[in-house]
Specification:
The protein is α/β, with parallel strands linked by helices. The chain has helices spanning 16-27, 39-49, 61-71, 94-114, 139-158, 182-194, 204-216; strands spanning 7-11, 31-35, 52-53, 74-79, 117-126, 163-169, 224-227. Helix 5 (139-158) links the parallel strand 5 (117-126) and strand 6. The longest helix is centred in the middle third of the chain and has 21 residues, at 94-114. It is globular, with a radius of gyration of 17 Å. Keywords: Oxidoreductase.
Length: 234
């Protein structure tokens, strides 16, 4: 198995893309640690997957430091954690704008600064295709995603020989959309799928496979992979 005996930390590993990545890495033989803010949810997922769990809030310096003090040296780190709040540019509250950037961008920054990697290690960040395909009412998410992609390229130099890459998903059917009324969610996903060359929206597992590829390809660093079902070419 490609990741046998490797220690993998998935920050944001209790749901969505992070959970799918933790499952796939565990199946590939890794010793997995998942981290997120919701300790109760985290423990339930860890018990089901038979992985370790460490509560961590990426918006808090001490919490991130505690995560990697407890983890020790690691082989691969994945950051999927994000609390996204957005709205029309002129009216979205500045508190929401700041909290989105704090969690999405500065959270990844904190993790990258603190994590201690073994030889051959990698860091994979997760952004989103709004970085280069912005939409109305999502300016702060577009900006945070673009900043993450730029950060990953800079860190590929600063943290070398640790490999640093970024995966930028398109529309993925994950629990982050669960706040929508179900009928509206299904309608939105169906319309999105109809406009894509692949004829469907993505699943967490689709992104997880690419993240694991970033971990295991020793010649890959400084890359941003757009995984969007063809959204950027239509």
């Amino acid at each position: 198995m490609q990741l046998a005996g490797k220690k993998v930390v998935v920050v944001g590993g209790s749901s969505g893309i992070g959970l799918a990545t933790a499952e796939l890495a565990r199946h590939a033989g890794a010793d997995v640690i998942i981290a997120s803010r919701n300790a109760e949810k985290l423990d339930a997922v860890a018990g089901r997957l038979k992985v370790a769990a460490i509560p961590a809030d990426v918006t808090d310096d001490a919490s991130v430091e505690n995560l990697f003090r407890r983890s020790g040296q690691v082989d691969h780190v994945v950051v999927t954690a994000a609390q996204l709040r957005t709205g029309p540019f002129k009216t979205v509250p500045m508190a929401d704008v700041r909290s989105t950037f704090e969690g999405k961008f500065w959270g990844a920054w904190r993790v990258a600064r603190v994590a201690e990697f073994r030889t051959g290690g990698s860091l994979t960040l997760v952004s989103g295709f709004l970085s280069i395909r912005p939409r109305p009412n999502s300016a702060i998410i577009s900006a945070a995603n673009a900043a993450l992609e730029s950060l990953s390229r800079a860190l590929a130099l600063e943290l070398a020989p640790v490999r640093v890459n970024c995966v930028s998903p398109g529309i993925i059917d994950t629990p982050i959309r669960a706040a929508m009324p179900e009928a509206a969610r299904q309608d939105m996903l169906a319309r999105a799928a109809a406009g894509l060359p692949v004829g469907r929206v993505g699943q967490g597992e689709d992104v997880a496979h690419q993240i694991v590829a970033c971990m295991t390809n020793g010649f890959m660093t400084g890359s941003t992979i757009y995984l969007d079902g063809g959204a950027l070419v239509v």
